[in-house]
């Protein structure tokens, strides 16, 4: 029986591409097509997911990582990205994060979920920035602060399965009673499965090229489909 539903943050509860595009449009002088923007964002997103552990183990400073990720994102079209411009972009990106919002309908769904299940967040990232996003999304209305795990604060990051087992132990549930909802096939789905959790892959960017090494329990293709599935869980819990 499912007793807890835990979410990733970036590109799971809100559209991470929106603030990225807003910041890039504000700071980059050339006009980019929608296809170019999508490819640049995907490189930015993948770099975030694949390299934040280097900040965790102090191989790279946070500032160097932030500069490196936009350089990596733009590498196919820009040979040299100056440090000054990279800092300018990062400032614009952080400002754009002050305007993010939950996917349509998700606030109401989370309210209903919180009455039927334990709700949590497990996210990789710098603690101040992740807290900024959570506050902007008003997650405190749905999730108890003790159930929010940010890798930077714990010293554990996905894909280490122990971040999931630690959450379950703290909340007092068994592994098979937890569901993790996340957008990254390898980082989210595989590591949660290795911890014994059920997994819902929120693949709303339709990333057909990336397949989890462990098959998720559900594959969700849109925010509307995510809401529908979560509300079905609430209904099932109410009927039991």
From TrEMBL:
Give GO BP annotations, semicolon-separated: small molecule metabolic process
Against SUPFAM superfamilies, the record matches this protein to: HAD-like
What superkingdom heads the lineage? Answer: Bacteria
Checking InterPro entries in the record gives: HAD-like_hydrolase, HAD-like_sf, HAD-SF_hydro_IA, HAD_2, HAD_sf
The cross-references to CDD domains, in alphabetical order and at most eight, read:
HAD_Neu5Ac-Pase_like
> Which of UniProt's keywords are assigned here?
Hydrolase, Magnesium
Q: Which cofactor does it need?
A: Mg(2+)
- Pfam families, alphabetically? HAD_2
Any one GO molecular-function label of the UniProt entry: hydrolase activity
Give the protein's recorded name: Hydrolase, had superfamily
* Gene source species: Lactiplantibacillus pentosus DSM 20314
